[in-house]
Write a structure and sequence with these properties.
With 381 residues, the protein is of the alpha/beta class. The chain is built from 14 helices and 13 strands. Bound molecules: pyridoxal-5'-phosphate (PLP).
């Protein structure tokens, strides 16, 4: 048996919508499907404004421009995250200031933020790891006290909530991803959520190569010209058509993922009870979207051995991330704003299991049996 780590889900209507876009004869960005996607997302999230982008990375770059990040400014974020969280700000000359994560949720430890704030700090970037919310009340309160912006990296968090509020609607700005490894996909894709309407007009301009083209199409100006910095952050209508098909099934797709997540949890619970592994902890104020199922082994050697044992049985499990503060670029561009002991420890012990709607009951059972066998035959000790 070979079990892939990921297989992008299809709802079935993607091709039909792409064909419609082709027949419509309008493939550049901001056509009918882009509009449909932003309207659907806006209604789903209850967000004031959603701008489709070609990736979450692009949405984060837009957020960094909107936050008016200048060379030498500091931005507080976890080290345990994907490179784009940091790169978007480094591109503006900012210094990422990394803080450690909480051992229970692997999210940025909110109690360490205060000590990381300096006179150069401009923003806090909470990353909702595995689609489980950061401690947003504390983070928002801290930001308000110090006059900082909050930019949610909600790449993994579409459909998750914190105290019944959808993630991506709490910070001033937020970024989502529709990369093929996320819950809702369009190959590459993303969205910027603008929760603070003072950013709205500039967000449109930055996304349209620094022009007021969007206003021109609304008939608000009689020609469009270069008015600000910007880039091309729009997805093609072909991508938007694909995405729209998926967005019509957010809860159904997340529901299927949750069923798999719960199967893993119940099957591996006894290994946790017996002290072999730790499973994800979901705080009671958080409802998550089953983006990821991971377990923590007791040691780094055990992580390496478990990944190899799974691989030998055809199961493609993976680990991540190499903590950003410990990378060449991280050392060059950023600095640690706290000790990094939890980040260093947990990234050395984390194993991510395959999780996607096409995963079958038999495959899940096989993966769990392989893990049980690994710990059962003594190699786990
Ligand atoms: C996937 C991911 C990104 C990047 O998303 P892209 O759409 O691939 O640009 C950024 N941050 C986090 C936390 C992610 O998981």
């Amino acid at each position: 048996m070979t079990i892939r780590f990921n297989f992008p889900h299809q709802v079935g209507t993607e091709i039909e919508y792409i064909r419609e876009a082709l027949e419509c004869g309008r493939l550049a960005g901001d056509g009918p499907y882009t509009k449909k996607c932003s309207e659907l997302l806006g209604a789903y999230l209850g967000a004031k404004d959603v701008l489709l982008t070609h990736s979450c990375t692009a949405a984060l770059e837009m957020a960094a421009i909107l936050a008016d990040i200048q060379p030498g400014d500091e931005v507080i974020m976890p080290s345990y995250t994907f490179v784009s969280t940091a790169n978007a700000f480094v591109l503006r000359g900012a210094i990422p200031v990394f803080v450690d994560i909480r051992p229970d949720t692997l999210n940025m430890d909110e109690s360490l933020i205060k000590a990381a704030i300096s006179s150069r700090t401009k923003a806090i970037v909470p990353v909702h790891y595995a689609g489980v919310a950061c401690e947003m009340d504390t983070i928002m309160e801290m930001a308000r006290q110090h006059g900082l912006l909050v930019i949610e990296d909600a790449a993994q968090a579409l459909g998750s909530t914190y105290k019944n509020r959808k993630l991506g609607t709490i910070g001033d700005l937020a970024a989502f991803s529709f990369h093929e490894t996320k819950n809702i996909v369009s190959g590459e894709g993303g969205a910027l959520v603008v929760n603070d309407l003072r950013f709205f007009e500039r967000a449109e301009i930055i996304r349209e190569k620094g022009t007021n083209r969007s206003r021109f199409f609304r008939g608000e100006v009689d020609k469009y010209t270069w008015v600000d910095v910007g880039s091309s952050y729009l997805p093609s209508e072909l991508v938007a058509a694909f995405l729209f098909a998926q967005l019509q099934h957010i809860d159904e797709i997340n529901g299927r993922r949750m069923a798999i997540w719960k199967r893993y949890e119940s099957a591996l619970r006894s290994l946790e009870k017996n002290g072999f592994v730790s499973l994800p902890m979901i705080p009671c104020e958080c409802a998550h979207n089953a983006h990821m199922f991971y377990l923590l082994t007791r040691t780094h050697d055990e992580q390496v051995a478990l990944l190899a044992a799974l691989k030998a049985k055809g199961v493609n499990a993976v680990f991540h991330y190499v903590p950003l503060h410990a990378t060449d670029a991280g050392r060059k561009f950023g600095r640690a704003g706290s000790a990094m002991s939890v980040t260093e420890d947990l990234s050395d012990r984390l194993v991510r299991l395959p999780l996607y709607p096409a995963l079958t009951e038999d495959e899940i059972a096989y993966i769990c049996a392989t893990i049980e066998e690994f710990f059962g035959d003594g190699r786990g000790l």
